[in-house]
Amino acid sequence: xxxxxxxxxxxxxxxxxxxxxxxxRLSLSWRExxxxxxxxxxxxxxxxxxxxxxxxxxxxxxxGPAWVVIDLALAALGRPSVPLPVFFxxxxxLHALTDAGACLLVRPPAAATSPIFTVAGAEVMAELLPFxxxxxxxxxxxxxxxxxxxxxxKGVCLSxxxxxxxxxxxxxxxxxxxxxxHLAVLPLGVLLENVAGLYPTLLAGGxxxxxxxxxxxxxxxxxxxxxxxxxxxxxxxxxxxxxVPELLRALTAHLATTGLRLPSxxxxxxxxxxxxPRLIETAQGVGIPVYEGYGLSECASVVALNTPRxxxxxxxxxxxxxxxxxxxxxxxxxxxxxxxxxxxxxxxxSGHLRTGDVGTLDDDGFLALSGRKSNVLITAFGRNIAxxxxxxxxxxxxxxxxxxxxxxxxxxxxxxxxxxRGDLRPEALQAAVARANAxxxxxxxxxxxxxxPPFDPARGELTGNGRPRxxxxxxxxxxxxxxxx
Length: 485
What we know:
By secondary structure, this protein is an alpha/beta fold. It has 2 domains: about 5-370, ANL, N-terminal domain (Rossmann fold, 3-Layer(aba) Sandwich), CATH 3.40.50; about 375-480, GMP Synthetase, Chain A, domain 3 (2-Layer Sandwich). About 30% of the residues lie in helices and about 25% in strands.
């Protein structure tokens, strides 16, 4: 049986009236959460009668208690789920549904005539899908799609044991005492928030707050209202968050500018791209207890994490206890044993995963990242440079919101930079680049840069978790990149 579901049942027995799951207008106790999951399980089970147990159910809901209850109900049914992130384009959503062979889609009601079912206070509907079944690896509990580096997301198949092993490891290394009030800031359709936020909170007996993304200030995903997010964290006394680097930068800048502080925060985990130690220091200086981590969808989102118990600046933390990391001769990070079941429609993987990431592992088990093997630039002077390193220094400057660095075969590096605010003058950005360059050796400094509008996932310039699609951005700015001083 699911260890998360077992933990929920135990909490319902030992402290049935304590708050377990909170939304905008709804608060469920542990006892009520058990009841809601059973209710949704019965509804879904009736709809799926006659369908093969291996056929997955897709979920396309905003953050909220209903998303959580549906996810848990599918786990209780032993039915694979396909979470669809809210930022997916219609084409990406259709690809995920067809690729996984989903038979049912749970989503908001489409029209007044749609059959409505109420889950955790929210109205939802279930749409039968016409797609042909696909053969998924035995034991698949979740098929997760990231927008990756191409327009067609790849389906990563994970077992319940693999996901819950990550969640249990996180509770072990962080400590159950940090399971207070966790707020979902990332979309629950993103595996990182699902596995590293929701499941550990439920296992450890914390209270999970799942508000709609617009309630947090994310009505415009490209221009989040950090002031609104800060107000929610303060009002609810939130203890923990999971952020991507761009949100950490925005929150840090907001607190630095306003002088506000969030004393209830005890742990803010950040991953998704390389962080500059200076950004971490700046965030800590305004009271954000930030801890850098690292992971991949193929490892159920988390491989290593700095924690309040064990932290080393400049690393992404110690490897989680259920995993083993070795380094190839060229520095590539190799993870075992069997972190995932495989990709949809692909042969079963070997027992280890070659990540494509380059780094080092010290004697104390702390992992440090250099960048992606495929992204390494070789300049005209023969220098090998990981662009993520240079970008992390640029992004540590409050004036810079987004940045991508180029320079393959060139005598100098150049950068495309998005200012953090629309009213910044070029001189301010030039000063920010100069400060970043002061932290870098001469061969890795940015010689030229140009300003650009915000990178947009709808234009294919960003992956869903905010990483730049370098190929697309290179094509857009090719004329600038080909210039030389």
